[in-house]
Amino acid sequence: MASSGLQIVGFLLSLTGVCATIAATFMVEWEKRFQVKELTYEGLWMSCISTTETTTCEIYDSVLKLPTEIQATRLVMVASLFFAALGLIISVFGMKCTRFMDAMPQGKGNAAVTGGILFILSGLLTFIITSWYAGRIVQLNQAAHHLQNKEFGHAVFVSWAGGLFTALGGVLLSLQGCWGSKSSTESIGTNHTHGRIK
Which stretches are transmembrane (predicted)? Predict the structure, then answer.
């Protein structure tokens, strides 16, 4: 029962991380650029210019015209969400609180481990690419004109949190899947031994 609870905690942590990663991917505040009378936000899919009177947003027309950091970050974030989606589907089959694969305890444990590994991969991809993006913004800010001030926005922090929660939940799922699988194997072995003694 306790192991099942820990598995649920891991799954919920990963689910929270995935939701944060989705939110960060579509947020516009990946980069903030301050100029004399306007504030520019740049996201992975659009940019917005805010003045004292109006705010206008524009969706990127061409991927090839985008800066390298936006192209790379967008690609890796989408890949991260793909692995996270696979992890969500597979881990549901491997969790002890579900009825799937009850007749195959070994396979159920393997499914939990596989789902956890996919979550870990997703979280690491998110965390690494976000850190790289933040580092690029810092470098560009140092080289920018003194009238422009660049810094990374709220989406970077949301993405960091999403990657951390996703990976941490994946670790709990993987470890619990290994322990659960080992316990099931030992239990089956014990039952066979008792049957022979009788």
Answer: 6-28, 75-95, 115-134, 155-175
